[in-house]
Write a structure and sequence with these properties.
Layout: E1 3-9, H1 11-29, E2 34-40, H2 44-52, E3 58-68, E4 74-82, E5 92-100, H3 104-114, E6 120-128, E7 141-145, E8 151-152, E9 168-173
Parallel strand pairs: 2-3, 2-5, 5-6, 6-7
Antiparallel strand pairs: 1-9, 3-4, 8-9
Bound molecules: inosinic acid and magnesium ion.
Length: 174
């Protein structure tokens, strides 16, 4: 496919929004036992920058799920490839995600984590494409709502490339 990339959300915009999200999370979880569960690999940049801004005692864990086999189309099948390492019993779980698209990934992950008996499960996602939703799921903390475009950068990939871009860009087919 012939394509070009166009910048959509700048480094500064991401940084500013992260500060706001961090303050919201900080006040909502003050005094609680918070475990932030990042979904690999897409959430790594966002998770690192966000959690550095949250002045709370919290712990980090990771899951890996897969719904994409490369390219820009979801297969709709969500497989759990890596479970969390720590106990989530009676903890407040905050799932950190790069983007909510159809919502299928988060639906599967939330159901899976619920079996570990946490007190609460919420979702913080850098990006949200609400127009693409297939299941009724919403994130409690959303960085940016975006239109139905395939985006890359700041953790998000296109066939495993571009995760290291410091900004979010859209892939434009030519
Ligand atoms: P969902 O299960 O359809 O909500 O898809 C969520 C996952 O699909 C995300 O965690 C991303 O890994 C991937 N994804 C969805 N949209 C995009 C995109 O525009 N760019 C890159 N990855 C995406
Ligand atoms: Mg992902």
């Amino acid at each position: 496919m012939e394509y070009s990339i166009e910048k959509m959300i700048s480094e500064t915009q991401i940084e500013e929004r992260i500060k706001e999200l961090a303050k919201m999370i900080e006040s909502d979880y003050a005094g609680k036992e918070l475990v932030c569960v990042g979904l690999l690999k897409g959430s790594i940049m966002f998770m690192a920058d966000l959690l550095k801004r949250i002045e709370l005692n919290l712990s980090m864990d990771f899951m890996k799920v897969s719904s994409y086999h490369g390219g820009t189309d979801s297969t709709g099948v969500v497989q759990i490839l890596k479970d969390v390492d720590s106990s989530l019993e009676e903890k407040e779980v905050l799932i950190i995600e790069d983007i909510i698209d159809t919502g299928l990934t988060l639906e599967t992950v939330k159901k899976f984590l619920a079996t570990k008996k946490p007190n609460s499960i919420k979702v913080c996602s850098l990006l949200d494409k609400p127009s693409r939703r297939k299941v009724d799921i919403e994130g409690e903390y959303i960085g940016f709502e975006i239109p139905d475009e395939f985006v890359i950068g700041y953790g998000l990939d296109y066939d495993e490339m571009y995760r290291n871009l410091p900004y979010i860009a859209k892939v434009v087919k030519r």
